[in-house]
């Protein structure tokens, strides 16, 4: 592990992140499929939900891969360098020319080579320089309230578009972010399927996603048949047929996930070539860890699995990486994490393009806010939500554009400010979802998917 992994650096609000293990799937004793039980129970947990009609839109994209950098990535050392500013603003690094003639930090040489395939937004505007509140805002489009819990974007996409194959429509690698909220007023059935295992580490295996070794497929099928006999008997006793039909659907989902070779294969890295791993930067390292050794970061494997899941039909994949809360020593934080990030961004975009997937897949690089223009007394940068950077690629977004301008110090946008809600609105639009649509919380209260969002036409092809 590198010296800037979660828990070792950052303010207390970032260090207290805990891993949420929401889905406990697998096959238990007797007749029980706990994955199916979970699907059934989660769907019934919050059934007081209906929806109001929205305008039908043509989809330009089918899927989203969101790479989230928790803690607040330093835009000055990545996507928005300030080479003409004083050293306390520009920091320790130089710049590199992109293949579009623009500049990025010299920590992003690989991304500079694929700049003609992406859009860099340098004028993002958030609301809150607090990790928990800003992360919730990023993932839901709303700031937290004591009255209503809002659904994550992935949950809304899951609800609105449904499945495209055997796999769940929303998947989190390796787990859901603890501050990101949940399904809100939507049913828990629209929450993310969490891997519970890191593709970038030894022993990677999706948690409870296979039939136990002591249970043969034949025995598994016999148990399923026994369950069907019991349910048939319940039907004969005039039980509620709608409830039983719903239960049947959830057990079918669980059975498919546990027995489908396509579903199992989508999570595996076995079929990937060495050249693909190299493209994504699997062996790229940062600084030495506490053991005085270099360690790969594992981001390459996470993003390769994300690409495989999108290929298999998953609608929305979130990938989390790193610990970017650099109040102290932003230089070392950058040297440790930026090389792996740079290679992985360039590798994923190039791979999607080569496979003909970039036009239908949105890649979205996010962070809950940016960092202050001025380096502080500890050599770090503090929280700054008024102006920061994102990157988007594919799915009908422009290619080779640097959109928006931050001021001379990067403190505020000086042109084409992009509030977070507007970018989310635009991503929904590309997926064919009307973000003005009102979802009815608790069956009575209409709530827009994105409140007061506007289409950012300048970043659409």
TrEMBL record:
<dbReference type="InterPro" id="IPR017850">
    <property type="entry name" value="Alkaline_phosphatase_core_sf"/>
</dbReference>
<protein>
    <recommendedName>
        <fullName>Sulfatase</fullName>
    </recommendedName>
</protein>
<dbReference type="Pfam" id="PF07394">
    <property type="entry name" value="DUF1501"/>
</dbReference>
<dbReference type="InterPro" id="IPR010869">
    <property type="entry name" value="DUF1501"/>
</dbReference>
